[in-house]
Amino acid sequence: MYSFAKLTTLAVFAFSTLVSAVPVAESVAASQVRGVEKRAQTVEDILNSLNTQLQPFATQLNAFTADSATPDAVTPVVGNIQSTIQSTVDQLNALPAGSIQGGNFLGALTTVMGTALNPANNVANVAGDNKVVIIPVFSPLGVVLAALVSSVLGLVGGILGSLIFLLVSLLGDLTAIIINLHLTVLITLLGI
Question: Is 183 a member of any domain?
Fold first, then answer.
């Protein structure tokens, strides 16, 4: 009998082959550039770009120690993460429904969430006595990550319940971090 993890992995691979496709190249207006084709940016490309943009902020969060992890010090970094993710949410919301062109968009979404949540959890864990006042600082992170998840999954359409189940299974240990940081909006959206 297969374990839940094996079945989930099999389902992810099966699903990714169903939605996998090569993005269609769009011709750029001849008046702009002659003879050059531009590949449409996929949701996966947008999420990978977001992950790259979040790396410096993740490094800043990981640098906090028990002495330096105060709400006044952590809040600006969380604000930067929040605004960076919100910019991507705005970009994704401008895309038409059904814009998922294949690829591993759930994997890219999971990577982005890990980049934002793992350092946040590290700060909460090193904060020691400040943990009680540090955890509320991450609340906006839960709201903007929930908006990101909603935007990405909204671009797929009809099979939302199945995708949330797959996403939660891909998140793995991140679900414990989401609960540890009391990210209630994200907890409600994911049903964990």
Answer: yes
